[in-house]
Design brief:
about 325 residues; alpha/beta; Rossmann fold; Dihydrodipicolinate Reductase, domain 2; 9-stranded mixed β-sheet; 6-stranded parallel β-sheet; 9 helices; globular
Length: about 325
Amino acid sequence: MFRWGVLGTGRIAHKFIGAVQGGATEIVAIASRDRARAAELAQAAGVPRAYGSYEELLADPEVQGVYVALPNHLHAPWSIAAARAGKHVLCEKPLSLTRAEAEEMFGAARENGVWLMEAFMHRFHPQTLRVQQLLAEGAIGRPRQVQISFGFTLDRPGDTRWHPEMGGGALLDVGCYCVNFARMVAGEAPARVTATAQWSASGIDLLLAATLEYPSGMVAQIACDYITSFHQTALVAGDDGVLALERAFTMPPDRPSRIQLWRGVHFAPLEVIEIPPANHFRLEAEGFAALTAAGHAGHGLPEMPLVETLENMATIEALLRSAREGRAVEVGGA
């Protein structure tokens, strides 16, 4: 059984630990800079060991893989440290703050013969896998237009996401899901982006909306924010149909999710595809463990591919630049 160590004791760590325990992988250690917090969570979750430093956990010989559930600005240094300690690394999204950081992280993983993957749990959920299947089968023809929005009200004053130096802001937090989904549908990175944003007094993007133009001719419109009621929707319009998701990224584990599908060009009847309940955190943990056992080539398993992570980080950098400078920006360009 694959054995996890968890860096961090925040809300996302709680969700991951609760989902993984009792499944096909196990958590054997939790680390926090506050040993008491690590011990409290470990006791509540039935995890045998708690550490008061991240270094102690990385030195634990029983830990095979590390789940990095730290604030965004700590993803790169601790993922690199985990790789150098010989641990496979599943790092929370966004993998890093820049493409250059992401490349350094993947370089450390390659040098030490371990896996590194960005933790987008929805990519392992059967709803997302069914969407990919429908697109591959041509259920809506060629995708031409994508609309994705993810927003909620961030009303916790002390939250790290208010701080730009810690990788805060709506785009890096939830807009990265929109960028990820659009890239998955397009099968390529955008060539050019145009964004606008509303900024907080601290300097983070409270709201960002953008148009992403792809070499194929597909256009995606995305929006993300911290100032609206909770929502996360996605619509893909093709030249022979449309599909829509009511809950695109954090599907509840205790009830079914739905894909709405209209096949054909003119006034097609609605087809509802019901997806059974599933816990995407558990599927992600078990999927990652399967990937480490299968190796990098020809495994045919669900994953968050390295190339997509790198292209998405370049896209995010271009979006923020466009919003700040008030002009269209070439992805990866000047």
